[in-house]
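Hey team,

Filing this mostly as a record. A colleague (T.K.) asked me to run one chain through the structure pipeline before their review meeting, and I want the input and output archived in the tracker in case anyone asks later how it was produced. No errors, nothing strange. Just documentation.

Input sequence:
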Amino acid sequence: MTRRPVLAAALLLLTSAAAGFDLQGHRGARGLAPENTLAAFRTALAIGVTTLETDLAVTKDDVVVISHEPAPYPPLARLDGAWIATAGPPIRTLTLAELKRYDIGRTDPDSNYGKAFPQQQPSDGERFPTLDELYALAAAAGKPVRLNVETKITPTSGASTADADTFARLVVARIVAAGMEARTTVQSFDWRTLVAVKRLAPAIETVCLTSEGGSFDTVKPDESGRSPWHAGFALAAQGGSVPALVAAAGCAVWSPNHASLTRERLADAKTRGLRVVPWTVNDPADMGRLVDWSVDGLITDYPDRARKVLAERGVALP
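Output structure:
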């Protein structure tokens, strides 16, 4: 009886090793093209990522679309040729046709966001893609590529997004329709959707996202002793081990913000059979350090930089 969990963990580690290093293009390749556009995903594919990382929202007519923000975002969106001055209506209140009116193919160069990504190449006329459109692009890539899709929902989203169960149901339906269950992971900071995905489709792997430090901390417990982000799972019940909490939630992958990852935490995760893919790693020095620690992958705005770091270390991509 005691040997089975050890054997299962060993098999997961072998599977991870066989899969090779996972280079994920964050929001496509945000450092090089407007985020979460088909242009950004094409750029990532041309560079040679193994996984397209992206974000999901749901329209009023229940279409799963690609967007990091819950509403059209001023530095990224133009309507009738002009930058929007304030955030648009929540995507959940717009039909797909209404959402497709926004042009997201160019970042406002005068905004702080635009100044942060001076290498971005505009692609005017890009519209919010649907998840189905992204799957079609991946299918036409000519080589296997994975998707890592994030349900953008928070414990306080309320009616501005689909509820957790509806969100999970609609996303799973599109994954199954594309026949991509084995090549898609679903990730979230709000683990309610991950629990729902595992209930609906146990074969689809889930990724537990965490953020610690600074103004965005999803691990710190509230007055109840639990984090509102973790679907009722309690860190204290796992001896204070975040990897143990991730394993308890049924995730196959732990994706922490890279600054919070230590060698000790990485080793803890590995003993539990978890793959570890930190986010968002843009500095080549950080990339090199994490690769040397033997993380399983990286999420980055600059997959071109990561490929160079990997090549310098003799790390081959599948």
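Quick notes for T.K.: The longest strand covers residues 51-58. The longest helix spans residues 3-19.
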